[in-house]
Amino acid sequence: MNAFAGSQNYVLDDELSKIVNISMSLEMPLLLKGEPGTGKTMLAHAVADSLSMDLIVLNVKSNMKLIEALYQYDTLTRLNDSRFGDSARDVSDINEYIRMGKIGQAFVTEKRCVLLIDEIDKAETEFQDDMLDVLDQMEFDILETDERVRAKHRPVIIITSNAKKDLSDPFLGRCNFHHIAFPEPKMMRKIIHAHFEDISDILAKNAIDTFYELRTIEGVEKKPATRELLNWIRALQADPDFKSGKLLAKEIPYLGVLFKKSGDYQRATGTLVKTGFFR
What we know:
The chain has 13 helices and nine strands. By secondary structure, it is of the alpha/beta class. The chain folds into two domains: 14-179, Rossmann fold, CATH 3.40.50.300; 185-274. The strands form three sheets. Strands 2-5-8-1-9 form a five-stranded parallel beta sheet, sandwiched between helices. It has a two-stranded antiparallel ribbon with strand order 3-4. A hairpin with a 4-residue loop joins strand 6 (139-142) and strand 7. Helix 8 packs across helix 9 (201-214). The longest helix is centred in the C-terminal third of the chain and has 14 residues, at 201-214. It is elongated and about 75 Å long. The mean pLDDT is 90.
């Protein structure tokens, strides 16, 4: 497999590049932690895009059962077909009513894919450990048909966590791990230029400086992250009346693009008024 070195819109440091590539080589899941907005989810998209692989995404829910991620048996449709008899499906064949879940899809695909298991910390410990048992063995049973599904190819597995709940030691022991720290200004400058090739130096510098100042406001529950900064720059560029020098004059438009919670927005606005940003 070709090595992953980032993509057009995804900038990564050497350490992250190494752990991604060694995880693919060892065929081990890669667990990514970091605050929201640091690019954990987008890494899986970038790997799939860069290596021309399909991406299958399992969005973990707090009440999710493992079987939902493996397959679903559509009993309701089978019951309706048997009652009304107007379906092209063979009601006597249970396989007609088996639908693969996201992990099941990654197992039966004809070529190796990227499997993103997003926000695993939302799930219960039992789900986490049982899921990794399946991923270790690369097989699971369909109880209704007594059929064993074996993976045709071991997927590239990327697991993300926002660290809202501790993961079990057995789970951690089966994964490689990387913590994606929030980008320093120098790295953020590279990220911005990856998304905005023609951005002016003064707008990039003023936007970054202002963004990091706003992140220091005390008491904010959800600090603006990289995606908010990128959307904020898009908003500034889309405004024909905006001049980048306004940020130097402490005029900060579109705070609602940066702060998404009412309390954070009000706290930011109040702080900026007190410090003279807003006059």
